[in-house]
Amino acid sequence: MRDVIIACDFSSKKETLQFLNHFQDCRPYVKIGMELFYAEGPDIVRELKQRGHRIFLDLKLHDIPNTVRKTMSVLSQLDIDMTNLHAAGTIDMMKAALEGLTKTNGQRPLLLAVTQLTSTSEERMQKELLINANINDTITHYATNAKIAGLDGVVCSPLEAKLVKDRCGNDFITVTPGVRFADSDTADQVRITTPAKAREIGTDYIVVGRPITMAANPLDAYQRCCDEFI
Ligand code: C5P
Protein backbone atom coordinates (compact mmCIF):
# COMPACT_ATOMS: atom_id res chain seq x y z
CA MET A 1 0.00 0.00 0.00
CA ARG A 2 2.76 2.50 0.92
CA ASP A 3 4.37 4.16 -2.09
CA VAL A 4 6.61 7.05 -3.16
CA ILE A 5 5.11 9.48 -5.71
CA ILE A 6 7.56 11.67 -7.65
CA ALA A 7 6.32 15.24 -8.22
CA CYS A 8 7.13 15.94 -11.89
CA ASP A 9 7.16 19.72 -11.47
CA PHE A 10 8.37 20.48 -15.01
CA SER A 11 6.94 22.88 -17.56
CA SER A 12 7.34 20.73 -20.66
CA LYS A 13 7.01 17.18 -21.92
CA LYS A 14 10.63 17.30 -23.12
CA GLU A 15 12.01 18.05 -19.65
CA THR A 16 9.71 15.46 -18.07
CA LEU A 17 10.73 12.67 -20.43
CA GLN A 18 14.42 13.57 -20.08
CA PHE A 19 14.01 13.24 -16.33
CA LEU A 20 12.08 9.96 -16.51
CA ASN A 21 14.72 8.45 -18.82
CA HIS A 22 16.98 8.22 -15.74
CA PHE A 23 14.68 5.49 -14.45
CA GLN A 24 15.40 2.96 -17.23
CA ASP A 25 12.96 0.05 -16.80
CA CYS A 26 11.63 1.29 -13.45
CA ARG A 27 8.20 2.99 -13.69
CA PRO A 28 7.65 5.10 -10.55
CA TYR A 29 4.28 6.54 -9.51
CA VAL A 30 4.32 10.18 -10.73
CA LYS A 31 2.41 13.34 -9.89
CA ILE A 32 1.36 15.65 -12.72
CA GLY A 33 0.45 19.08 -11.36
CA MET A 34 -1.08 22.20 -12.84
CA GLU A 35 2.19 23.45 -14.36
CA LEU A 36 2.79 20.42 -16.57
CA PHE A 37 -0.91 19.76 -17.28
CA TYR A 38 -1.60 23.33 -18.39
CA ALA A 39 1.58 23.36 -20.48
CA GLU A 40 1.03 20.06 -22.29
CA GLY A 41 -2.64 19.20 -21.86
CA PRO A 42 -4.14 15.71 -21.42
CA ASP A 43 -1.65 14.16 -23.88
CA ILE A 44 1.09 14.20 -21.25
CA VAL A 45 -1.15 12.05 -19.03
CA ARG A 46 -1.83 9.60 -21.86
CA GLU A 47 1.86 9.41 -22.74
CA LEU A 48 3.06 8.70 -19.19
CA LYS A 49 0.26 6.21 -18.64
CA GLN A 50 1.18 4.43 -21.85
CA ARG A 51 4.79 4.21 -20.62
CA GLY A 52 3.49 2.34 -17.59
CA HIS A 53 3.48 4.97 -14.83
CA ARG A 54 0.71 5.26 -12.27
CA ILE A 55 -0.51 8.86 -12.17
CA PHE A 56 -1.67 11.25 -9.46
CA LEU A 57 -3.29 14.16 -11.35
CA ASP A 58 -2.97 17.05 -8.91
CA LEU A 59 -5.38 19.69 -10.27
CA LYS A 60 -7.13 20.63 -6.99
CA LEU A 61 -10.60 21.32 -8.43
CA HIS A 62 -12.87 23.85 -6.67
CA ASP A 63 -16.06 25.03 -8.42
CA ILE A 64 -19.83 24.54 -8.31
CA PRO A 65 -20.89 20.87 -8.01
CA ASN A 66 -22.23 20.60 -11.57
CA THR A 67 -18.98 21.90 -13.12
CA VAL A 68 -16.84 19.65 -10.93
CA ARG A 69 -19.01 16.59 -11.74
CA LYS A 70 -18.65 17.18 -15.48
CA THR A 71 -14.92 17.93 -15.25
CA MET A 72 -14.24 14.81 -13.19
CA SER A 73 -16.15 12.81 -15.79
CA VAL A 74 -13.75 14.10 -18.47
CA LEU A 75 -10.70 13.37 -16.28
CA SER A 76 -11.91 9.83 -15.57
CA GLN A 77 -11.45 9.09 -19.31
CA LEU A 78 -7.71 9.64 -18.86
CA ASP A 79 -7.25 6.45 -16.86
CA ILE A 80 -5.49 8.20 -13.97
CA ASP A 81 -4.94 6.49 -10.61
CA MET A 82 -5.53 9.38 -8.20
CA THR A 83 -6.82 12.95 -8.36
CA ASN A 84 -7.96 15.68 -5.97
CA LEU A 85 -10.12 18.72 -5.15
CA HIS A 86 -10.49 21.31 -2.39
CA ALA A 87 -12.63 20.19 0.56
CA ALA A 88 -13.68 23.87 0.88
CA GLY A 89 -16.01 23.24 -2.08
CA THR A 90 -18.42 21.54 0.41
CA ILE A 91 -19.73 18.01 0.82
CA ASP A 92 -22.13 18.47 -2.12
CA MET A 93 -19.25 19.36 -4.42
CA MET A 94 -17.21 16.36 -3.23
CA LYS A 95 -20.17 14.00 -3.78
CA ALA A 96 -20.69 15.42 -7.27
CA ALA A 97 -16.98 14.89 -8.01
CA LEU A 98 -17.22 11.24 -7.00
CA GLU A 99 -20.25 10.74 -9.25
CA GLY A 100 -18.44 12.31 -12.19
CA LEU A 101 -15.29 10.29 -11.61
CA THR A 102 -17.05 6.91 -11.40
CA LYS A 103 -17.16 5.10 -14.73
CA THR A 104 -20.17 3.11 -15.92
CA ASN A 105 -18.44 -0.12 -14.79
CA GLY A 106 -18.26 1.30 -11.25
CA GLN A 107 -14.49 1.81 -11.30
CA ARG A 108 -12.81 5.10 -10.48
CA PRO A 109 -9.44 6.54 -9.44
CA LEU A 110 -8.76 7.44 -5.82
CA LEU A 111 -10.18 10.85 -4.91
CA LEU A 112 -8.50 12.96 -2.23
CA ALA A 113 -9.32 16.32 -0.69
CA VAL A 114 -6.96 19.18 0.08
CA THR A 115 -7.99 20.46 3.53
CA GLN A 116 -6.05 23.67 4.12
CA LEU A 117 -2.97 24.25 1.97
CA THR A 118 0.22 24.00 4.00
CA SER A 119 1.08 27.51 2.76
CA THR A 120 -1.95 28.90 4.67
CA SER A 121 -1.03 29.92 8.21
CA GLU A 122 -3.53 29.80 11.05
CA GLU A 123 -3.34 33.60 11.31
CA ARG A 124 -4.21 34.20 7.64
CA MET A 125 -6.95 31.57 7.73
CA GLN A 126 -8.56 33.38 10.65
CA LYS A 127 -7.99 36.97 9.48
CA GLU A 128 -8.46 36.65 5.71
CA LEU A 129 -10.80 33.68 5.41
CA LEU A 130 -12.71 34.48 8.62
CA ILE A 131 -12.51 30.87 9.78
CA ASN A 132 -12.82 31.24 13.51
CA ALA A 133 -11.17 27.99 14.61
CA ASN A 134 -7.68 26.65 15.07
CA ILE A 135 -6.03 25.20 11.99
CA ASN A 136 -5.81 21.60 13.22
CA ASP A 137 -9.53 21.55 14.04
CA THR A 138 -10.25 22.99 10.59
CA ILE A 139 -8.13 20.32 8.92
CA THR A 140 -9.69 17.41 10.81
CA HIS A 141 -13.18 18.87 10.25
CA TYR A 142 -12.59 19.19 6.48
CA ALA A 143 -11.15 15.65 6.46
CA THR A 144 -14.31 14.42 8.19
CA ASN A 145 -16.42 16.18 5.53
CA ALA A 146 -14.38 14.43 2.84
CA LYS A 147 -15.02 11.10 4.53
CA ILE A 148 -18.77 11.82 4.81
CA ALA A 149 -18.81 12.60 1.07
CA GLY A 150 -17.24 9.18 0.39
CA LEU A 151 -13.74 10.31 -0.60
CA ASP A 152 -10.72 8.07 -0.06
CA GLY A 153 -8.51 10.45 1.90
CA VAL A 154 -6.68 13.78 2.06
CA VAL A 155 -3.46 15.49 1.05
CA CYS A 156 -1.86 16.90 4.19
CA SER A 157 1.40 17.66 5.96
CA PRO A 158 3.08 14.78 7.79
CA LEU A 159 2.20 16.25 11.18
CA GLU A 160 -1.48 16.39 10.23
CA ALA A 161 -1.49 12.80 8.93
CA LYS A 162 -1.66 11.39 12.44
CA LEU A 163 -4.50 13.74 13.45
CA VAL A 164 -6.43 12.77 10.33
CA LYS A 165 -5.91 9.03 10.91
CA ASP A 166 -6.95 9.38 14.55
CA ARG A 167 -10.16 11.17 13.50
CA CYS A 168 -11.10 9.40 10.26
CA GLY A 169 -9.63 5.93 10.76
CA ASN A 170 -6.50 4.19 9.59
CA ASP A 171 -8.00 3.23 6.22
CA PHE A 172 -8.56 6.88 5.31
CA ILE A 173 -5.61 7.59 3.00
CA THR A 174 -3.09 10.35 3.68
CA VAL A 175 -0.80 11.66 0.93
CA THR A 176 2.05 13.71 2.31
CA PRO A 177 4.38 16.21 0.64
CA GLY A 178 7.18 18.05 2.48
CA VAL A 179 9.66 15.17 2.52
CA ARG A 180 13.42 15.65 2.79
CA PHE A 181 16.38 13.38 3.48
CA ALA A 182 17.96 14.06 6.87
CA ASP A 183 21.14 15.32 5.16
CA SER A 184 19.57 17.34 2.29
CA ASP A 185 18.57 20.95 1.60
CA THR A 186 15.03 21.81 2.81
CA ALA A 187 14.51 24.57 0.12
CA ASP A 188 11.19 26.37 0.78
CA GLN A 189 9.47 23.56 2.70
CA VAL A 190 9.04 24.27 6.42
CA ARG A 191 7.04 21.45 8.02
CA ILE A 192 9.18 18.63 6.73
CA THR A 193 9.88 15.03 7.58
CA THR A 194 12.23 12.31 6.36
CA PRO A 195 10.90 9.27 4.46
CA ALA A 196 11.70 7.09 7.51
CA LYS A 197 9.79 9.41 9.87
CA ALA A 198 6.83 9.53 7.43
CA ARG A 199 6.71 5.74 7.63
CA GLU A 200 6.73 5.92 11.42
CA ILE A 201 3.86 8.46 11.40
CA GLY A 202 1.87 6.03 9.27
CA THR A 203 1.18 8.04 6.12
CA ASP A 204 0.26 6.03 3.01
CA TYR A 205 2.00 7.92 0.20
CA ILE A 206 4.81 10.48 0.22
CA VAL A 207 5.08 13.02 -2.59
CA VAL A 208 8.72 13.87 -3.25
CA GLY A 209 9.85 16.51 -5.74
CA ARG A 210 13.22 18.25 -5.61
CA PRO A 211 15.11 15.70 -3.48
CA ILE A 212 14.66 13.39 -6.52
CA THR A 213 14.23 15.76 -9.50
CA MET A 214 17.31 17.86 -8.60
CA ALA A 215 19.50 14.95 -7.47
CA ALA A 216 22.71 14.20 -9.35
CA ASN A 217 21.40 10.63 -9.67
CA PRO A 218 17.56 10.66 -9.56
CA LEU A 219 17.23 6.88 -9.65
CA ASP A 220 19.52 6.50 -6.60
CA ALA A 221 17.59 9.22 -4.74
CA TYR A 222 14.27 7.54 -5.59
CA GLN A 223 15.57 4.15 -4.43
CA ARG A 224 16.83 5.69 -1.20
CA CYS A 225 13.32 7.13 -0.60
CA CYS A 226 11.73 3.75 -1.26
CA ASP A 227 14.22 1.96 1.02
CA GLU A 228 13.45 4.34 3.90
CA PHE A 229 9.69 4.59 3.38
CA ILE A 230 8.31 1.34 1.96
O1 C5P B 1 10.02 19.66 -4.36
P1 C5P B 1 9.12 19.25 -3.22
O2 C5P B 1 9.47 17.88 -2.65
O3 C5P B 1 9.00 20.31 -2.16
O4 C5P B 1 7.69 19.09 -3.92
C1 C5P B 1 6.52 18.82 -3.19
C2 C5P B 1 5.35 18.72 -4.13
O5 C5P B 1 4.17 18.61 -3.35
C3 C5P B 1 5.16 19.93 -5.03
O6 C5P B 1 4.58 19.46 -6.26
C4 C5P B 1 4.17 20.78 -4.28
O7 C5P B 1 3.41 21.60 -5.13
C5 C5P B 1 3.29 19.71 -3.62
N1 C5P B 1 2.58 20.14 -2.44
C6 C5P B 1 3.20 20.63 -1.29
N2 C5P B 1 2.46 21.02 -0.22
C7 C5P B 1 1.11 20.92 -0.25
C8 C5P B 1 0.46 20.42 -1.38
C9 C5P B 1 1.23 20.03 -2.46
O8 C5P B 1 4.43 20.70 -1.26
N3 C5P B 1 0.42 21.26 0.80
What features would you describe in this structure?
The chain is α/β, with parallel strands linked by helices and about 230 residues long. The chain has a single domain (about 5-230), classed as Aldolase class I (TIM Barrel, Alpha-Beta Barrel). It is about 45% helix and about 15% strand. It has eleven helices and eight strands. Strands 1-2-3-4-5-6-7-8 form an eight-stranded parallel β-barrel, surrounded by six helices. Helix 5 links the parallel strand 4 (about 80-85) and strand 5 (about 110-115). Helix 4 packs parallel to helix 5 (about 90-100) and helix 7 crosses helix 8 (about 160-170). The longest helix is centred in the middle third of the chain and has 15 residues, at about 135-150. It is globular and about 45 Å long. The termini are close together. About 40% of the residues are buried. The protein binds cytidine-5'-monophosphate. Cytidine-5'-monophosphate binds near residues 33, 117, 155 and 211.
